[in-house]
Structures are given as C-alpha cells and as structure tokens.
Amino acid sequence: MTRVVIADDHPMMVEALRASLTSEGLDVVGSTQYGAEVVGLVEATQPDILLLDLVMPDRSGLDCLAALRERTPDVKVIVLSGLEDQASIDAALATGAICYVRKDVDSRDLAATVRILATNAPIYAAGRLGAPTPARESSAAVAPAADVGLTRREVEIVELVQTGMSNAEMASTLFVTEQTIKFHLSNIYRKLGVSNRTQAAARARGLGLKNASPSD
Known about the structure:
single chain; about 220 residues; alpha/beta; Rossmann fold; five-stranded parallel β-sheet; 9 helices; about 10% strand; globular
C-alpha cells in the first residue's frame, strides 16, 4: 500500500485529504499543519509520497523541499497548492517537487497521480500516429463519460485533445503544469483502453463523450 504524508496548514483540508485518499486505498501515515514539522515527520514515517502545501506557518513549502532534497531524497513530493501563478509552479519544480497540483483537483485524479508517482508506473507518450480511426457505430456511441470512469477534469482534457492542443497549450489553458497533463492523459488512456492521444480522440468521439455528463 502506498504510504502518504500530508502537510497543509488548514486542518479541514488535512482531514478531507486523509478521508479521500484512504477511501481510494492509500495509507496516510502522518500529517502536520506546520512547516517546521515536515522534515522530521517525513524522516520518522518514511512515506512514498509527501503532499506538501507551499504556504504554512513556521517554514515555507519551498524551504521544506530544499531540506528534503538533501535529507530524504527518495521521498517524492507532490506540491498541492492554491497558488496558481507560474512563478510558484516553477519554483516548486526547480526545488525538488515532481508534480504540482491545484487544490481543486478531483480526489480520484489526485489518488491516481499519487499511485503513478509512487510506483513509477509508465506515462504513455502522446505521439502523432496518423489519422484517427473512424469510430464504429454502436450502442456505446452515446455512452456517458461516467460509464468509462472519466472525471470532469479528464473530460475537459479529452475535449482539448480533440481540438489538437499540445500538452503545453492544455497546461496553459487549465492553469496546471505539463506534467499534470501527462498524468491525466495516462489515466484517460487507461480508462479508454488506448495508448496515445490520437486513439483517445477517436475513442472519445465514438463514445460521444463531448456532449456527455462526466462523473464527479
């Protein structure tokens, strides 16, 4: 079971994250609301993943990242923050975070991202493999997104994929990092049973996802 530590200065956020991650089968082995406690907690619990806010009392998330990179370099850090400016994103990734996620992320997307990063699961490369295969007519052509398990964010990304946007363009449009887009694409490929964006776009059209109501 993937072991997770949560560091966030809002008690309700900590408890909400604990509940959602636990419900998804992840093991939350510790939490703190204080930046000064982060490094010691990580050393004591040895998690696979640390979910780290950037703004905390006593010590900032960036300071924690710098210390963790020296003292516990094997622990992977996902920054989970309400800050959306590019400077904060760039600083977090440059200081040692392997992913930057906004706090309004769907809980299932967050859990999936944690699993992918913790297990070093492969991220499928999106390549240009020729024209999309025409969708076959079937009863599945009007299947709602919920039937294949896509979240609202994943449906948004599928729709952007169908417009031909690059990862960078989608990241800019949705105010996330390109790495976050890659994680979402990996989940989309798995749920749709495809291996690249061309196939995903064709499969989405075949399922009629663009006009469907996604799952929460």
